[in-house]
Amino acid sequence: MFESAELGHKIDRKTYDKELPALRAALLEAQIEMFKLAKFPVIILVGGVDGAGRGETVNLLNEWMDPRYLQTHGMGDPSDEELDRPMMWRFWRELPPKGRTGIFLGSWYTRPIINLVHGHSKTADLDQSLERAKRLETMLADEGALILKFWMHLSRDKQKQRLKLLEADPKTRWRVTERDWEHYKLYDKFRLVGESVIRHTSTAEAPWTIVEGFDSNYRSMTVGKTLLDAIRKRLDEANKEITEISAPPPLPSIDNLDILKTLDLSQKIDKKNYPDELEKYQGKLALLTRSAKFKNITVIAMFEGNDAAGKGGAIRRITGALDARYYNVIPIAAPTEEERAQPYLWRFWRHIPRRGRLTIFDRSWYGRVLVERVEKFCSEADWMRAYGELNDFEAQMVRHNIVVVKFWLSISKDEQLKRFKEREAIAFKHFKLTPEDWRNREKWEEYEQAVCDMVDRTSTEIAPWTLIEANDKYFARIKVLKTLCQSIEAALKNIENRKP
Amino acid sequence: MFESAELGHKIDRKTYDKELPALRAALLEAQIEMFKLAKFPVIILVGGVDGAGRGETVNLLNEWMDPRYLQTHGMGDPSDEELDRPMMWRFWRELPPKGRTGIFLGSWYTRPIINLVHGHSKTADLDQSLERAKRLETMLADEGALILKFWMHLSRDKQKQRLKLLEADPKTRWRVTERDWEHYKLYDKFRLVGESVIRHTSTAEAPWTIVEGFDSNYRSMTVGKTLLDAIRKRLDEANKEITEISAPPPLPSIDNLDILKTLDLSQKIDKKNYPDELEKYQGKLALLTRSAKFKNITVIAMFEGNDAAGKGGAIRRITGALDARYYNVIPIAAPTEEERAQPYLWRFWRHIPRRGRLTIFDRSWYGRVLVERVEKFCSEADWMRAYGELNDFEAQMVRHNIVVVKFWLSISKDEQLKRFKEREAIAFKHFKLTPEDWRNREKWEEYEQAVCDMVDRTSTEIAPWTLIEANDKYFARIKVLKTLCQSIEAALKNIENRKP
Q: What is the DSSP-derived secondary structure letter of residue B375?
């Protein structure tokens, strides 16, 4: 795999000096065009062996391009705020918006590689990480990102030679540390793992470019030209109409039996018992969230449901039991300008709380497979691929000890009509009813189909859907509270059982 | 000052139960109206003595109001990311956008009070902090925020009684800690300092409401009604046209002599010497920013100047000397939707970097007293008050070891014309010239006046303006680099001299 990058590639000074001005001008021009178009971001990952010129190359790109539309992220040690969230959060927060370029020195590949080379993890762990990385990149590419991955390579001898050269020059001596020599000893292992990473994650949408790092002219020119070529091609495509192709969407149940129809919406609890039940579960929730162990977990509770199904009421029964300092309710509305410049999931990632907190989403990332699907706000290919992406998103949270609790509040079509009319009648509740609600109601069956497909595809062992029969709001609220308590209890028990 | 809050205020259960539903409904309605109007945020600060019901009151507000448009911030210990920035950064990042409410349990008053009570600081320090707090609140109020400050009070005896009561009940016992009893011993001192804080910071735009905290019905009703009244009044005013009154703007210099006219724009350096000079100062900058001590400071370099004065070129000569991982260039363009929902300075606060980093602003917070003044994008009162606000902003940075370097790049009207024509002629530079540039040029004298006023009012000992004679771009770049190096050098020396 590294054969071509050990041939001793070289570009002489004269050729380099001759070609550079045109390359720089073209890069700058492409960058401006990209910024004005604001249709896609460029994400550049830079990895490879020590001494192969990763940092120099990045600095050079910064010199060639307009630093106003380019940001470089040295992904060193995570901050405490970053450690409190899933591993990928620190990358999400630095993703370049459409029209701009982000360079990551150190990427989602760095930690998995280092861990395996140093014997802190197993090959199976690496494979899992790579699988996840690939899925992430596919998603970013589907969202429009142009992804370029550069691997700076040196043969073992050349690495030694480079490190010696750097050490010999007083100007660059500081850049060679003992750790570099430590790493050098692990060269063979690193090379092997690197090769495996490149082999598994070089995809059509995010290929690796292996660059021989010894000759700086060759290295810089290769990176610059690869980057220019990729941006230019994308710019040329950007104005073409692209027809996305996806597998046909799921068929409705052919025997007219579906998961929503199995719900017994007539379930209710005696209104007399409601206050006691409410106090009981609110008390339980209060105790659970105030326990010392709670600061080790994070809870994300998410509400979807028919219009007027009582999401707001259920949410208030939860927050009523909580300490206001440790929860947050995120109402999901139309994305803001800054959110629209990012991949779909960005606006949810940004609200993932620190440990020891509970965040409630009033509507959620499932909007893509519900309202966006039914109202055709996104393409069929977009919502078809979303199921897997949403599962991946939740899996990342769960791996980080985040308890993900998902509620679908279900009411019958008749019950909805009754509630709409009530809202119309009561001045104070009037603001709760919009013309949109009536329009959505006309598409009842389509929404029902979307909900069934969603539950079938995203109710997982680690983040199951809880369907709430909500014709009786008291029943619904108690079931929500009970489910939430059970989930938190299980998570706290899990923490306890885990070996320290 | 606390006399009225020690009278033993009380509201009996019956009255409370009778009045509560109407209060809740009205609060909810006001909140929705406020959200729909999206013209002002509500900022609520809650302080006072232990056991006076601060937390309970906040939780109750959360229960009464819609938690989707309300967020509570328990300002506990700062995170490492927060410690790396000026003290106020953590409040700025949590400010509620227009239409929403933010409750701060613990505020910018907490630390100064605690420090004085515990003898870690002097009265003079407190006075300074209060002065700053007042200026901040005035600014927030001028930006439209509705600010409410509640001080929960208990007499010494009542505090003891409350703490004992809480301890006696198994349900609330956990809430009384040893620290509360420690604090109790300091009651008299705390009361004294509290009084002084309230006296100095109860202003027309952000008054304190002292609330007797013993009887929870009285306490809750008082806070709820005060809040409702304030929001209602503001909503009623919101639709009125408000004429802001300010002192008359500065007159132009009456003898036609001003700071810009004193610049010798003919200064230049020999083009032959430029490469050497450039290398010299870039090398120096590289060394300074890579020194071990650099990680203790933060550098913010800011560029303003005439159109086509060469800001971009000067910035690239700086970034060319830096490690791409540790700098960031922020081009200031029109504010985004999220930025428009916040006070003016919010969009600059969000870009303040962590320690050991350098951030370059290409145009800056001075937009308010330059383009916004001249083009009348804001009212006269807005830009007239801005001078003081911008000075305050920079003072906060400097206090936090941030080196603030401000450049004005000045070219003559003739030189600008020459450059505009060049840009028109060269296809590649065409994108740099917009019709707006020509329009701005017509207002040359007005901009000149704005620049002179700006320099007169915001060139301070701690954050002086450096005027750059930029008709010769080589001269300008070297002077910029030289100034930046000197500022960083001085800051590093300062760090060294400081006692540990």
A: T
Question: Considering only alpha carbons, which residue of chain B is nearest residue A354?
Answer: B79
- The tokens for B101 are 């409410």
| CA distance linking residue A396 with residue A392, whole number of Å | 6
The tens digit of pLDDT for each residue in B76-89 reads 889 999 999 999 99
pLDDT band per the 50, 70, 90 thresholds, residue A170:
confident
Residue whose structure tokens are 């949590």: B94
Report chain B residues whose CB lies below 8 A from the CB of A328: 71
Q: Kindly identify which residue of chain A lies nearest to residue B174, measuring between CA atoms.
A: A290
Q: Which residues pair with A263 in a beta bridge?
A: none
B223 CB within 8 Å of a chain A CB = no
Nearest Cα residue in chain B from A319 = B63
pLDDT at B339: 96
pLDDT at position B276 is 96
pLDDT of residue A467: 97
Residues 6+ apart with CB under 8 A from A2: A153, A155, A191, A195, A210
A257 has a pLDDT exceeding 90: no
CB contact under 8 A, A324 and B25: no
Domains and their CATH numbers in chain B: 3-238 (3.40.50.300), 260-497 (3.40.50.300)
Evaluate whether A263 touches A452 at the Cβ level (below 8 Å): no
| Shortest Cα–Cα distance, B441 to chain A (Å) | 24
Per DSSP, A210 falls in state E
What lies within 8 Å, CB to CB, of B296 at 6+ separation is B355, B356, B401, B495
Q: How many CB atoms lie within 10 A of CB A329?
A: 23
**Residues 6 or more apart whose Cβ sits within 8 Å of residue A182:** none
Nearest to B207 by CA among B146, B132, B139, B126: B146
Which A-chain residues 379-438 have CB contacts (< 8 A) with chain B? Answer: 428, 431
The interface pTM score, or ipTM, of the predicted complex is: 0.86
Asked if B174 has any chain A CB less than 8 Å from its own CB, the reply is yes
Strand, helix or coil at A99?
coil
Nearest-by-Cβ selection for B320 from A63, A290, A327 = A63
pTM: 0.90
Give the position of tokens 């230049």.
B268
Residues 334-353 (A) with a CB less than 8 A from some CB of B: 336-338
Instruction: State how far the Cα of B379 lies from the Cα of B384, in Å rounded to an integer.
Output: 9
Task: Say if A324 is an interface residue toward chain B (CB within 8 Å).
Answer: yes
Distance CA(A325)–CA(A360), nearest Å, equals: 13
Nearest CA in chain A to B56: A323
Q: Residue A80 is encoded by which pair of tokens?
A: 């405490």
Task: Select the residue from A24, A27, A62, A318 to test the B interface by mutation, using most B Cβ atoms within 10 A.
Answer: A62
